[in-house]
């Protein structure tokens, strides 16, 4: 799976305008190295990349950053649609079944901190709606393919007028607007989220049109991602960021779920 991640990054560098990490092969030509040491406890796989210059986007330029992010994402998806994946290519699938059934090891949303019976009932109703709507949308190649799957602004580097992408370790298969949903992962409480979505869409459409059926399900994909983050935060309770985020994240997720259900439930 790590080798597949590297294969896609290298293809993006060759076949698109997307600037991404540059993996470095070992002396024997392999990109993925196996490290074994008594200090590690168990063998680990590792990849080394060249250093990328740049800094995280400034918070006060959020709208412009989302326009640029949408544009870059569209270029990335265009490359995906024309790329024939190599034999043996293997990456996770970010769909309701895989996320809700913990197939990718993110954890169970039902076990999130701050979860009580009321929250279980609310989120459980939303999960069923998400499953129904995305099943109806289907996985046509216009809608569904290889995505970065963690394309937050924190995973971009700005150098002058250049934007570079890092952190592909969650890349996998999902609906193309999953990349928009990941950009909003921790900022859905902002009042300007609708404007940020429009900014991202404006950037995307400057490269290629988004299918109307897929665009109509942006709220559904956003809530699919929200459940995935509940899973992820719960399995990382030992991390300070998660400890400070999860309890309020669960209650805020229920508020978002209620709003979603009013529209689509």
What does this structure look like?
The protein is mainly α and 265 residues long. The protein has one domain (55-264): Alpha-Beta Complex (Aminoglycoside 3'-phosphotransferase, Chain: A, domain 2), CATH 3.90.1200.10. Helix content is 48%, strand content 11%. It is built from nine helices and nine strands. A three-stranded mixed sheet has the order 1-8-7. A two-stranded antiparallel sheet has the order 2-5. Strand 7 (156-159) and strand 8 (162-165) form a beta hairpin. Helix 2 packs across helix 6 and helix 4 packs across helix 8. It is globular, with a radius of gyration of 19 Å. The model has no long low-confidence stretch (mean pLDDT 93).
- Total individual domains: 1
Output the radius of gyration. Answer: 19 Å
> What is the element string, with H for helices and E for strands?
HEEEEEHHHEEEEHHHHH
Straight-line distance between termini: 36 Å
Q: Roughly what fraction of the amino acids lie in strands?
A: 5-15%
Largest sheet: 3 strands, mixed
**Mean of all residue-level pLDDT scores:** 93
Total helix count? 9
Widest β-sheet, arrangement of strands: 1-8-7
- The low-pLDDT segments are none
| Name of the CATH superfamily | Aminoglycoside phosphotransferase (APH), C-terminal lobe
Q: In CATH, what is the class?
A: Alpha Beta
Task: Tally the beta strands.
Answer: 9
Helicity level? 40-55%
């Amino acid at each position: 799976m790590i080798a597949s991640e590297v294969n896609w990054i290298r293809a993006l560098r060759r076949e698109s305008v997307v600037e991404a990490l540059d993996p470095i092969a070992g002396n024997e030509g392999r990109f993925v190295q196996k490290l074994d040491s008594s200090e590690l406890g168990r063998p680990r796989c590792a990849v080394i990349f060249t250093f990328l210059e740049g800094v995280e986007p400034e918070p006060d330029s959020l709208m412009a950053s989302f326009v640029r992010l949408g544009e870059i994402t569209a270029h990335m998806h265009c490359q995906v649609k024309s790329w024939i994946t190599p034999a043996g290519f293997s990456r996770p699938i970010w769909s309701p079944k895989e996320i809700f059934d913990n197939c990718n090891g993110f954890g169970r949303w039902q076990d999130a901190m701050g979860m009580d019976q009321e929250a279980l009932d609310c989120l459980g109703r939303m999960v069923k709606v998400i499953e129904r709507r995305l099943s109806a949308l289907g996985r046509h190649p216009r809608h569904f393919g290889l995505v970065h799957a963690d394309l937050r602004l924190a995973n971009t580097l700005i150098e002058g007028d250049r934007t570079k992408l890092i952190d592909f370790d969650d890349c996998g298969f999902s609906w193309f607007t999953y990349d928009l949903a990941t950009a909003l992962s921790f900022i859905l409480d902002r009042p300007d989220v609708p404007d940020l979505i429009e900014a991202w869409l404006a950037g995307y459409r400057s490269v290629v049109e988004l299918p109307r059926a897929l665009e109509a399900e942006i709220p559904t994909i956003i809530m699919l991602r929200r459940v995935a983050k509940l899973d992820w935060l719960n399995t990382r309770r030992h991390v300070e960021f998660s400890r400070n985020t999860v309890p309020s994240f669960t209650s805020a997720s229920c508020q978002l779920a209620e709003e979603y259900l009013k529209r689509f439930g």
